[in-house]
């Protein structure tokens, strides 16, 4: 299980009087809500023993359930899409093989396609989700889905937490996603070369690690 987020809490002194909001969002209350939402937590003290770190992660089946609930868009595998179009589905769906004009890359017409995640159809021949080293979901997808679970209302099986309010109202010192340092180091080697030209940036890798918005920024 890969870690996704961390929440930092301050250890309260005996003479400190928490506000009503802080009492209702103590470490115990927050962790209980996270666990009831199907998330896994790991907790430990800081070196100075004045802070508590709570790492939050989600098992694959919980990520799949959340992606299915919100129809989270995931990329489709270009090679599998091409194979489906090449053979057609006349007997089951009534359409013949689809022929495309010749492109510089034979996979070009099949790249960049997305579909809502459906865990009941995951792995089926007609909806070939792209697979990454982390599985169906990239690191950035996992971070987004865990955030959604933490903020989603409890009647939708979420934790019902407002992360910005936790920090703003000082129930929590900080809430932030964790880096995957192995993936980050790999990206740094590809991206930050001394003689690397701007036109040769690893656009796909940047998008897959930092997300679509940052990826689009560097493309343009």
UniProtKB/TrEMBL annotation:
Annotated keywords: Signal
One Pfam family from the record: Anoct_dimer
TM regions (residue ranges): none
ATP-binding found in the keyword field: no
Source taxon at top rank: Eukaryota
MF term (GO), any: protein dimerization activity
Residue intervals of the Anoctamin dimerisation domain: 5-181
Signal peptide: 1-16
Entry keyword annotation includes Cell wall biogenesis/degradation: no
Protein name: Anoctamin dimerisation domain-containing protein
Organism: Rhizochromulina marina
């Amino acid at each position: 299980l890969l870690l996704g987020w961390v929440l930092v809490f301050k250890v309260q002194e005996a003479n400190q009087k928490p506000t009503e909001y802080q009492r209702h969002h103590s470490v115990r209350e927050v962790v209980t809500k996270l666990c009831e939402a199907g998330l896994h937590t790991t907790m430990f003290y800081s070196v100075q023993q004045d802070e508590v770190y709570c790492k939050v992660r989600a098992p694959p089946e919980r990520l799949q359930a959340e992606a299915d609930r919100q129809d989270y868009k995931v990329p489709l595998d270009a090679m599998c899409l091409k194979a489906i179009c090449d053979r057609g589905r006349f007997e089951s769906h009534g359409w013949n093989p689809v022929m495309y004009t010749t492109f510089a890359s034979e996979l070009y017409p099949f790249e960049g396609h997305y579909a809502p995640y459906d865990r009941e159809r995951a792995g089926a021949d007609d909806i070939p989700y792209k697979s990454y080293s982390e599985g169906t979901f990239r690191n950035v997808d996992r971070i987004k889905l865990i955030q959604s679970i933490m903020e989603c209302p409890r009647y939708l099986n979420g934790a019902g937490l407002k992360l910005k309010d936790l920090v703003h109202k000082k129930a929590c010192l900080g809430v932030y996603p964790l880096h995957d340092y192995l993936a980050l180091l790999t990206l740094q080697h590809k991206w930050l070369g001394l003689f690397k030209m701007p036109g040769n940036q690893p656009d796909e890798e940047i998008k897959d690690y930092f997300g679509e918005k940052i990826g689009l920024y560097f493309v343009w």
